[in-house]
Amino acid sequence: MSKHGRVLVAMSGGIDSTVTAMLMHEEGYEVVGITMKTWDYASSGGSSKETGCCSLDSINDARRVAVDMGFHHFIVDIREEFGDYVIDNFVDEYLAGRTPNPCVLCNTHIKWNSLLKRADALDCEFIATGHYAIIKEHEGRRYVKRAVDRNKDQSYVLWGLSQECLERSRFPLGELTKPEVRQIAFDRGYAELSKKSESYEICFVPDNDYRGFLKRRVDGLEERVAGGHFVSTSGEVLGEHKGYPFYTIGQRKGLGLAFGQPMFVTEIRPETNTVVLGTEDQLIRNSMKVGQVNVMKYAEIPDGLEAVTKIRYRDNGTFSTLHNQNGEVKVEFLANVKGVAPGQSAVFYEEDDVIGGGIIYR
């Protein structure tokens, strides 16, 4: 009988999930490992070598650790459900002129649902992942807190987790730094793993060429959207572009036009295949609307709450006031913010605590 119960550990074959399994085992949990096959990169037509959590090498690495430590390990093929939701949404969002965040969708709608489903089937009370974040409790509600290692903190991509998911989740790396995690792997005889490089690309676009992925994924896309216009914020035609899905808000490089000053994508209008260009000052916003809101720390966001709002993963955040509007949130920034991109996630913080988050739509 285990000391703390039975836990299903998501194992990608990388150092973080491997150390997660080690720590849960050492804490007295009965560990069951699971590796989820989410994507077959060869089917995307890309030119890069298959890397990351979907590669055969990574799956074998995860299985080897399970064998070494003496616990069961399962491989689950979720490519169909992953593709139907995450990849289709990724494509649809770009075709709608927005910039998607597939890692958030994958975490909240695919990975956790799949883990909980398998945990129930395997009689596991808990699930554990290698995310750098901390789970805390406030007045009976669970929420995510930033990790000790700010360079690795992943609280931003976890804003969509439900109370049920948080109640059953364990993040043993949240109180550790990355060097400490590497040292744990080294000390336990996994020197090679402790030096393993990390992948920061989207798993189904490992060559980091999302434009090429869209062209391969959508038949005839390049021809359908070619010939649209770049226009100024005043409506003046500035030139011809290669198709609105191939541009993102805030983009400056790769426009194919020369101006007397730096110009940026400030708006995308899919209905007319138009990309609006402006100066850096014209990227500035002092408010935005956020929908599909998930609240963690409170039952609902108090109207007028002051918070720090992050509009992208590497954003430092901006002080803001949150206005609850029938389940949506209007964010008023207390300083000007550049590059607000519809489709991206907005995450609200009280110091290190995640209040909640949602999808930017205006």
**What is the N-to-C succession of helices and strands?**
EHEHEHHEEEHEHHHHEEEEEEEEEE
Helix content: 25-40%
CATH superfamily of the domain at 6-130 and 172-194: HUPs
| Rg (CA only) | 22 Å
The tally of strands reads 17
Could you say which overall geometry the principal axes of the C-alpha atoms support?
globular
Strand order of the largest sheet: 12-15-14-13-16-17
Strand content: 25-35%
CATH class of the domain at 6-130 and 172-194: Alpha Beta
How many DSSP helices? 9
Structural category is alpha/beta
Spans with pLDDT under 50 lasting ≥5 residues?
Answer: 47-51
Distance between the termini: 53 Å
Specify the oligomeric state.
single chain
**Main sheet overview:** 6 strands, antiparallel, barrel
Mean pLDDT: 91
CATH arch. level architecture of the domain at 6-130 and 172-194: 3-Layer(aba) Sandwich
CATH level-3 fold name of the domain at 6-130 and 172-194: Rossmann fold
